[in-house]
Each structure stands twice: as C-alpha cells, then as structure tokens.
User: Fold this.
Amino acid sequence: MRVVEKPGYTLCLSCLQSDGTFCDISDEQAAEALHDEKRLIWLNVVVKDVEAARDLLQNQMGFHELAVEDSLSDNERPALQEFDSHLFVAGSKVMTTKGERESYTEIGLFLCKNGLVTVVREPIPLLDEWFRRFEKHPHPFDEAAPFLMHSILDHIVDEYFVAIDVLEDEVDGLADEIYQGDTSRISDILILKKRLMEMRRHITPTRDILNGLLRHNSGLVPPATKLYFQDIYDHTLRIAEIADVNRDTLTSLLDVHLSTVSNNLNNVMKKMTVISTVLMSAALIAGVYGMNFKEMPELNWWWGYPFAIILMVVSGLGILWLFRWKKWI
Assistant:
C-alpha cells in the first residue's frame, strides 16, 4: 500500500497485477490503471478539500459528475447509481466509541471493471485494515473488485450489529428501572427512541442498495458475487427488525411510564381527598360553634369545649371507617 499526501486529499493505492503480484505505481498512473485490463487498482481518497477531490474524481478518473457530487456530500442518503463505465454506491458507516453516542460517516464506492475507488471525509481504520488484508490475501484477479466492495459493505453492515447491541442493552436496562417504579426516565426513553430511528434511517437505504444490486443485472457485479451480497442483505433485514422491535419496546415503556406517573398522581389525589374530607367534618363543627348567636347552650356548658373536640375526632374516625368499609382506601 502506498500513501500519497496531496494538498486537497490523501491517496492510498494498491495495485494487483493479473499474475497475482502487487506493483508500485505513482498517483499520476492511478487514473490510467483504472482502465488497464492487466492491473486491478484500489484507491482510497481521504478528502481534505472538496474542489481538489472533485477535480481528481471527475476530470482525472472520469467518474460521472452526479456520482462525484454525492460522494463528496456530508449528508448524502445511501444510494446506488449505475453508469456506462462504473457503478457508484454511497454507504453509511456507523462509528461507535465506548461511553459515547454513535455517529455516522459517509463512504462512497466507485466500482469499475478493473478497480475500486473509495471516498471518505476522514480516515477510517476499517479501510486501512482491508488494504492490509487485500495485499496479504488477494481475491482472484477477475473478481477482485466486486469482492472488495462486498468485503467493505459487509464490514460496514456488521458494525451496525455492535451498535444495535449497545442500544438493545440500554433499552433492557431502562425497562428494568421503569418496571421497578422509576418515574424520572422519560427523557432517556425519547433519546433512545430517536437514536433507534436514526439508525434505521441509515440501515434501511443500505438494505435497498443491496436489494438493487441483487435484482439488477450489471456487468460489473458478476453472478458469483450475488450470493455474498445476499448475505449482507439478510443482515440489514435483521438489523432493521431489531431496531423496530426495540423501538416498539420503548413505545410500550413510554406507555408504562406515563401509566405509572398517572397512577402515582391518583394515589396522591386520593390521599389528599381523604385528608380534606376528614378536616372538612371538623371544620363544619368548628363553624357551627363559631356562629355569633347569643342563645347557644353549649357556650356556657363546662363540657362544651371537650365535647366539640371529641365530636370532631369521632366524626373524622367515622369518615375513615366509612371509606374503609366502601374499600375506597
């Protein structure tokens, strides 16, 4: 693998010859090597300056301007485009860092008859690893380019399993806390649901790309490789299904959470109602004896005050007994 630093981009080059050996070529020869039937080249372009990379891909390598535009876009939806001399695939790779939220980066792949060009906006360890694997264990010359693209797409999709497993563990942990009565996690539920929706927005178009590769007869994708692309397609279906199941689980958790909060509020209101009713009976008695009438026998009675207090207590206990008997508390 040869690394060439340019003002607007970084090139990683690897060139496989028809006899199974690798040769060293310059960056100036890279564009010509894409059309050399005796050599197969893999170029990885790490973009630093968009205009410089556009000139390399469009003017020097001859890729279609629409595909080049999509490959240099930060927020391009994964897509599949076929042209006369090349096939363009825009994929979305999930980046996972322990303790942090997952992020996504775009990878553009230009598949030619005798080469593969990958375009990224930042260095990706996955591609460096596959450069080393490619040079150590190259595929048969006639099928190397599509198998390279398969290997990259396969690992891109497999990393979604790592990310979805992390999200699934968070959903399970959240469910345990909510079922134990925690009523302060509504924001965590909504954040997790948003992360799952974002992951689904990235994996679903990738599924459609692979479905298009399987259904479309392209000379750049030989029938022998379609079985392998079918395997990746099955993986995307499984990831999308796991995301949907966990999103449904979060919806159920949200319902449980809201039901728990509502039930707790009802219990508080019930207690407050009982207290208010008991105090209301005492207030009624106090109000009667607080009226300014001259002729109230109890006002001059020695036992009047104790009688009023006892009457308040008895009426309160009577109301509590009634609520218990009616099974309202």
The beta strands are 2-5, 9-17, 22-23, 39-47, 79-82, 86-95, 103-112, 115-120. The helical segments are 27-33, 50-60, 65-71, 125-136, 144-179, 186-215, 223-289, 304-325.
